[in-house]
Each structure stands twice: as C-alpha cells, then as structure tokens.
C-alpha cells in the first residue's frame, strides 16, 4: 500500500490524461453523432447510405481492432509523408490517435441517439413556431434543440459511461493513462492488485461525478417541460 502512495503523483497524472481523453473524445463523438443524425434524417440517398455504412462498420469491428488500425496506419502514413518530404521521423501520439479513434467509434452510437431524439420531437411545434414568426435558426435554438437535448440526455449518458471505460484500451498502444501507469507500476513493484484497485477507484470517481452532472442536466432541461405540464 505504501508503494501506491508513493506513485500517487503519477497515478493522478494518468487520471488527468484519462479524463482529458474522455472529454475530448466525447466532444468529437457528439460532433460525429450530430452529423450522422443529420445524414440519416436527410431526404436524399447518399447521406443515409454513408451514415449506415459508418454505423455498420463501428458496430461490426471491436474497439481494440479499430484503435490498433488507426494507430499503426496513422504511423505508417506519417512515415510515408516524412520520407517523401525528407523530414525526420514523426511519431504519432497515442493520446491523439486514441482520442480520434474513440470519438469516431462512439459518434456512430450517438448518431442513433440523436436521430431518435430528433424524431421524438413533435414536428407541429416547429410549424407553430414558424407560424408565430420565428426564423429557422430561432426555431431550432429556442424550440427544437432544447427538446432534442432533453430526449437525448439518457442515451448520451450511457454512451459517455461506456466511452470513458473504453479509454482504458488505449493503454495497449503505449498511452500513460490511469490504466497504463497502474499496469506499469504494478509490474515494477509486483503489486498489481493494489495498483489495479487504484485504477478501479479512479474510474468509480469519474462515474460518480458523471452521474451527478447528467442528473443536474436532466433536471435543468426537464424543468420547463414540467412547469408546462
């Protein structure tokens, strides 16, 4: 246990890297999800087909395989570019590669979450807002978007929880996140159990804080609708 205490600064650094990766990946996933939902809801054929191929790919391939493909193919592409340009070798950052891959993966799940939330909003409300003289952007910002967010919050929370746990897989490509540091420290001290317990507690803290944040968000977006009822 004393050895875990001695490693606390490194574990705290790994904890920060894990949280930063999860937040940045979630931001990318939300962007990908919004674009995917818009593509699925579009009336053309190309948009829905592209999004369907995207979601099918993500659902059919394990996260670990995609992370390895993104990392090693990204490194190979970078080597090709640097060799052609006569530059020195540039190593692909495991943090950047992991963030992009996880954001890409969970954007597919959020696309379906956002699409379902958009479809749950009564179209008549948008038509009523237009009849009252609101412009399309005002209708989206004041009427449609708050209801989409309200409908999407439960599913988004589930995606966030799974995404956060998926960051642990990125340690396999050399990222010094919470899991990576815990494994390295456990290997060095032969105290795997206690260091993995430390990682266990770290993820529980993230989960607990996340639940509080999403509960607050749900209360905030539900307040106006509760008053209306």
Descriptive overview:
The chain has 229 residues and is an all-alpha fold. It has helices at residues 2-6, 8-41, 46-60, 63-85, 94-120, 123-131, 136-166, 178-189, 192-228. The longest helix is centred in the last third of the chain and has 37 residues, at 192-228.
Q: Descriptors for this entry?
A:
single chain; 229 residues; mainly alpha; MetI-like fold; globular
DSSP E strands, number: 0
Reported CATH architecture: Orthogonal Bundle
Instruction: Give, in order, the helices and strands.
Output: HHHHHHHHH
Distance between the termini: 54 Å
Average of pLDDT:
86
Poorly predicted parts: none
State the major sheet.
Answer: none
| Gross morphology | globular
Q: Looking at this structure, what is the CATH superfamily?
A: MetI-like
Which structural class do you get from the secondary structure elements?
A: mainly alpha
Assembly level? single chain
* CATH fold description: MetI-like fold
- Number of spatially distinct domains: 1
- Estimate the strand proportion: under 5%
Rg, nearest Å: 21 Å
- Percent helix, as a range, is over 70%
Count of helix runs = 9
Tell me the name of the CATH class.
Mainly Alpha
């Amino acid at each position: 246990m004393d050895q875990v205490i001695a490693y606390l600064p490194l574990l705290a650094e790994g904890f920060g890297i894990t949280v930063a990766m999860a937040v940045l990946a979630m931001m990318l996933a939300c962007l990908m999800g919004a674009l995917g939902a818009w593509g699925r809801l579009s009336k053309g054929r190309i948009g829905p087909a592209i999004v369907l191929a995207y979601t099918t790919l993500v659902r059919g391939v394990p996260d670990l395989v995609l992370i390895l493909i993104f990392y090693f193919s990204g490194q190979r592409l970078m080597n090709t570019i640097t060799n052609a340009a006569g530059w020195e070798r540039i190593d692909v950052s495991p943090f950047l590669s992991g963030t992009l891959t996880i954001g890409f993966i969970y954007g597919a799940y959020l696309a379906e979450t956002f699409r379902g939330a958009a479809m749950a909003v009564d179209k008549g409300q948008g038509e009523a807002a237009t009849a009252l003289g609101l412009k399309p952007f005002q209708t989206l910002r004041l009427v449609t978007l708050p209801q989409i967010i309200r409908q999407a919050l439960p599913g988004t929370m589930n995606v966030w929880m799974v995404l956060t746990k998926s960051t642990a897989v990125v340690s396999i490509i050399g990222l010094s996140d919470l899991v990576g540091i815990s494994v390295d420290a456990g290997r060095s001290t032969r105290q795997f159990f206690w260091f993995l317990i430390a990682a266990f507690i770290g993820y529980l803290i993230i989960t607990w804080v996340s639940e509080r944040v999403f509960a607050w968000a749900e209360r905030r977006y539900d307040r106006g609708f509760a008053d209306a009822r």
